[in-house]
Amino acid sequence: MFEHSQIVLETGSDLPIDAVGWGVLALSLVVTGVWLAYVYR
Length: 41
Prior knowledge:
41 residues
């Protein structure tokens, strides 16, 4: 994880925003999936 953060910081100003956006999207999808599994079990 730290290596990924270093790569993001080294590549420039546009990528970190995109990486954070994709990370938030992936995390929200995981949370939604876990919530649905919990509700419909």
